[in-house]
């Protein structure tokens, strides 16, 4: 005890580490933070700032694998589709239904490819005869896209 009333605290372990010489640069093990008592009362919920990762839709997966015979061509003003083969020669059976499923997409380039591809396929000559047998499969998909 000093007569002036000032107390000197003994150094703690953290303070000793800070004052140690820089020559001993050994990495310290990471310390896990202790759980707070409120963590039991407030369980983790959805983090609104985390990146939302949704598995790719059937259309997105098919497009990524090259199952749709057209690609998006970025223009300076307008985008367009470039078909690998003429749309008249493409089989409508799996493709028209897949493009209709893509109408539910919300991300680029899927929105453009599905909308434009669906429209271009229906504009080819003889599309009516090819699309009518697919109506029982197309109607539920189109209804889902409208929701």
How would you portray this structure in words?
- It is built from seven helices and two strands.
- With 147 residues, the chain is mainly alpha-helical.
- It has a domain at 58-146.
- Strands 1-2 form a two-stranded antiparallel sheet.
- The termini are far apart.
- The mean pLDDT is 81.
Keywords:
two-stranded antiparallel ribbon, mainly alpha, elongated, single chain, PACRL protein, 147 residues
Tell me briefly what this model is.
This protein has 147 residues and is mainly alpha-helical. 41% of the residues lie in helices and 5% in strands.
The fraction of residues in strands falls at: 5-15%
Q: Which spans of ≥5 residues are poorly predicted at pLDDT below 50?
A: none
The shape is elongated
Helix/strand order, N-terminal first: HHHEEHHHH
The main β sheet shows up as: 2 strands, antiparallel
**How many DSSP E strands?**
2
Within the largest sheet, what's the order of strands? 1-2
Q: Mean pLDDT, as a whole number? A: 81
Bin the helical content.
40-55%
Structural class by SSE content: mainly alpha
């Amino acid at each position: 005890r000093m007569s002036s009333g000032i107390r000197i605290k003994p150094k703690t372990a953290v303070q000793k580490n800070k004052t140690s010489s820089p020559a001993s640069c050994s990495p310290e093990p990471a310390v896990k933070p202790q759980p707070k008592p409120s963590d039991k009362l407030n369980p983790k919920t959805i983090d609104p700032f985390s990146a939302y990762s949704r598995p790719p839709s059937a259309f997105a997966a098919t497009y990524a694998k090259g199952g749709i015979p057209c690609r998006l061509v970025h223009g300076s003003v307008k985008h367009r589709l470039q078909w690998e083969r003429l749309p008249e020669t493409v089989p409508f059976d799996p493709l028209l239904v897949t493009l209709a499923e893509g109408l539910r997409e919300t991300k680029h380039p899927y929105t453009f490819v599905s909308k434009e591809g669906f429209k271009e396929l229906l504009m080819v000559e003889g599309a009516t005869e090819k699309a009518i047998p697919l109506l029982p499969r197309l109607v539920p998909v189109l209804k889902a896209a409208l929701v």
